[in-house]
Amino acid sequence: MTTTRKTPTTAEHALLRELTVKTRKGTRRLKKYERDALIQMLAVKAAPEEFDVRNLIPKGSFLERIVRHFEDTDISYALPVMHVVMITASFLTQNGACLEVPGVGRVLPTLWTIGLAGSGSSKTLASEEIDRIISRGKGLPLNRLATGCTDAQWIVELNDNNGAFWFQDEVGKTFKSILTDGNYRRIKPWCLDAYSHKPIANRLKSEKNKLVIDRPYFTFHGLTVDETWRDDIDLSSMLDGFCQRFSYYVAVPRGDTDIFDHFLYFEGPKVDPRRDCLAEIWDALCDQDGACEAYTLNDEVLPYLKAWWSGLRQSWGQSALPKSFIRRIGFAVLRYLMVLHFLLGKSRRPVDIETADLATRFAEYHFLSALHIVQQYDRAKTSRIQVAADARARVSDAGKPVTGREVSRALSKQQRAQFEKGEIGEILSVLNQIEEMPGLFDATSDAREKSSAIEGRRDEIKARLLLNERKRNERRLRELCRGRERSNPASHLYRDARDDLESNVVQLHLPLTGTE
Length: 516
Hints:
This protein is of the alpha/beta class. It has a domain of 328 residues: 3-Layer(aba) Sandwich (Rossmann fold). Helix content is 48%, strand content 9%. The strands form four sheets. It has a four-stranded parallel beta sheet with strand order 6-9-5-10, with helices on both faces. The chain is globular and about 75 Å long. The N terminus and C terminus are likely disordered.
């Protein structure tokens, strides 16, 4: 007796029936957990301003000076800012910095981050400019892993350069090779173990003994073209444990300028003095007391982070972002604490609430970015679902029953032509499953607000720091540079270039401590 499998007829199956993912054995339909995630992801829309990295930058800080250096270009500010963050993470990692958390042990600043930007957005140029600035400093160059290695070469490279900086351009194509090419396939399980610093090993053909790395670790920064990421990494790969080990950021185009405003980047007589000044500040940060030692938390930080994490239940816990992303990005906050504390020039002091709050805002930036990236796997359906959702809201606001007929009437003739017969009803059925999610279609709603406990704590911090954030951060950098001057009288670049930097100030509005 033969049996036939009944074709599922639920609304979510109907809506997602065309989606398949590639495997080594061919293609398959989505599994239930993948459908459940996509049901929510397809309907989410974030405003471009939510990805503006300037909202994360403390006034008067080294990061703000980096932003000002890139002002006369059309390069997205996210690219240089995040490369500075990753260079910092690697510098701290390679020089022995760690965070001591009682009961948890030592946490290394080994951030793993991937940035997505549009084609022609000068991704490589932005990274090269930051590298050029850092290389002008007096410190030792960062140790970097070679790229393009097969798996057998990769583990030897890591063994010889454990702790190094892995910077990978065109990371989507590299990951595609790791996930599908037999010459690279062992890199994936080795990376999974390296994420938690578990031993990895390989027996070389020319040697009798295994090559064993007892505690592998490295920092990772990858860049890729937003438009091609989905061609290289399919949905199944994006949702598996490998790709979820990374934090993501979206480098959105700037709204104040475009490519046609800038024939050349970084030209003119003031550019090199500004690079030298930034290199001088970087050196001062590297030389600050406690920069590469064990970082500790003051008594307020851990309760603050726990309250922030609990507050995510009512915001991101009800969102479409898979909890595996949320968990790993949340843990990366501990790594961010060291990086941001260093960049604020406060390494000699225990990590405080100001640094902790900044780290949580970076985490939420990564939440938004990861959600945006996964959402893009079906742009056509995302667009149609959004059209139906907007019409559904209009029908509800008008006090009419939310039915397929009423929603169809609320659409224009051109909009109705997008939908197949019965598809609006299917979409409404799916949307009803997630109608309790606050702020699903409103980027300014309270869906991502903190819990009341966090809001109260933020208000307290804001009142304390609101009026003098810029002065405090500038003074801290100035004192660090003056300390270098006293030990090295020839070091005067910060003083000479300060007036030029101060005359080119970008006023930023910060949610926590900034003012206009």
